[in-house]
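Sample entry (447 residues):
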Amino acid sequence: MWLPDLQDSALPTYLALVEAIATAIGRGELKPGERLPPQRRLAWTMGINPSTVMLAYREAARRHLVSGEVGRGTYVLTGSREASLFRLKQPTAAGDLIDLSTNVPVHDPDNRDLSTSLAALAARGELDMLQAYPSAALVERAHLAGASWLRRRGLELAPGGLLLCAGAQQGVSAALLALCEAGEPILVERYTAPGIKAAARQLRLPLHGVAMDRHGVLPDDLDRQARATGARVVVLTPCLQNPTGASLDGERRAAIAEVARQRGLWLVEDDVYGVLGSEAPLAVQLPERCLLISSLSKSVAPGLRLGFIAGAPQLLERIDREAQATRWAVAPLSLALACEWIESGLAEQRLAWQIDEMQQRWRLAARVLGARMPQGRAVAPHLWLDVEPPVALAEACRQKGVEVVPAEVFAVEANPGHAVRVSLAAALSRAQLKQALEGISAAWPIG
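Predicted structure, serialized as tokens:
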């Protein structure tokens, strides 16, 4: 029977148990389809309350690590390895791993924008009002601010062409729920973001991977897969794709838009990285068949939890006929702050800082990694390093004190390929990133 060791954890017992499950899955100690110990038996063996184990199993199921069925037990989900990326991270201590496994924007520890904005709201007597439900005026203001933000992506939105949501993950889930029936095949890139895989699993939508090259998905294979599977929906990240960093050029985008029209495909475009790049979204070429999902999470501040779903009004009605269901999850304080920052130009300043820092870190990676650095790729917040075998490199990096993610976490098909993803923006500083990259270089000898 699998037994976790919780002695060194500072977390509450039930969360420590969830972390132990995630770690065991990541290391292969718990395999897909394997049954976890019964709750009461594990509680008795470990000397803890059965309700604590029940809470842990429930939280592990919420994170898509396991699935519990009454009368059958709790089992490790197939493909739950990618869900372990979202497990709760404990504070970094001296000698711990440098975690480059999750895609987050660079955090500027010297920035005081949030403190200043909150103080300004309080000084104007507006802070207390944000304890209530959002007013109609605030919602309308947020719609205008969102349309203004997406205009920099080349989108001129008609009235009613935008929904608010609590981040891109909720936006993608809402779009799939509106466009698909359970069991319906969905086309995605061969390597796709863990959040997309998790949303599809939760909605019981089987994924089919479309072949890629260094520029992104191949139009011919998209056409072949659409014909072979009968899929009606495709989910793509055309700009700075996660995890590969690929960006579709204009010619490739036009070809994909043509395939979508010919095959009657609805496109869900994950554009969360779009403002960090230079290419226009596919939605510009395919407005009648595209739902574009964006947010402020990767470019301005992840804590705001504000996202946008843009598209033709008739498509948005399929998601939310009353135009309020998705926005109920957005806190009024987030709406107010986002509006302030977009209207004042502060969001643009924070975006510019993020892009500059990303470029600095990309150049640093090129200096440290040398010939290991991928060629012909746009500057992205993450690196996709071709290496064989990737799991061995990930473990070697861990031995050098760096956490990276092998391709199997992102792969849709059974053959995961040979690569690892390195999240450059996740390091706390360039000095820490340099240390981590030197560890990767030492773990990955050339020749």
